[in-house]
Amino acid sequence: MTGRPPQREPRQRKQVLLRLDPAVHDALARWAADELRSTNAQIDFLLRKALSAAGRMPGSAGPAARRGRPPRNRPEADSDGDGP
Questions:
Q1: 18 with 44: CB under 8 angstroms?
Q2: Which residues are within 8 A (CB) of 44 and not within 5 positions of it... i.e. 6 or more apart?
Q3: What CA–CA distances, in Å, run from 67 to 17, 34, 45, 59, 77?
């Protein structure tokens, strides 16, 4: 036993084609940039907020994606600290 919690398989994210008025897209992109998010992450954030406010967020929904660069997956052999 390694003492680590079991890792879950990442859930596949759905892809959706979204048609927006160019002015709405530009406003979303500016808002996202102000909050250091991508436009896609901003849309996801706003949809989750609206679902929660309406009491419609499904309990099975996974957590929001973490912000920033994903953690680097290091092989077990490098975990001893002797790696580069």
A1: no
A2: 64, 65
A3: 22, 14, 11, 22, 28
- Residue 84 is encoded by which pair of tokens? 């580069």
Q: Are 58 and 47 in contact (CB under 8 A)?
A: no
Instruction: Look up tokens 């912000």; give the residue.
Output: 67
Q: What is the pTM of this model?
A: 0.63
Q: What residue has token string 């609206």?
A: 50
Question: For 68, left (φ over 0), alpha (ψ -120 to 50), or beta?
Answer: left
| pLDDT tens figures, 27-81 | 999 999 999 999 999 999 999 999 999 999 888 887 777 767 767 876 665 555 5
3-state DSSP assignment of residue 60? coil
Give the whole-angstrom CA distance, residue 82 versus residue 75: 12
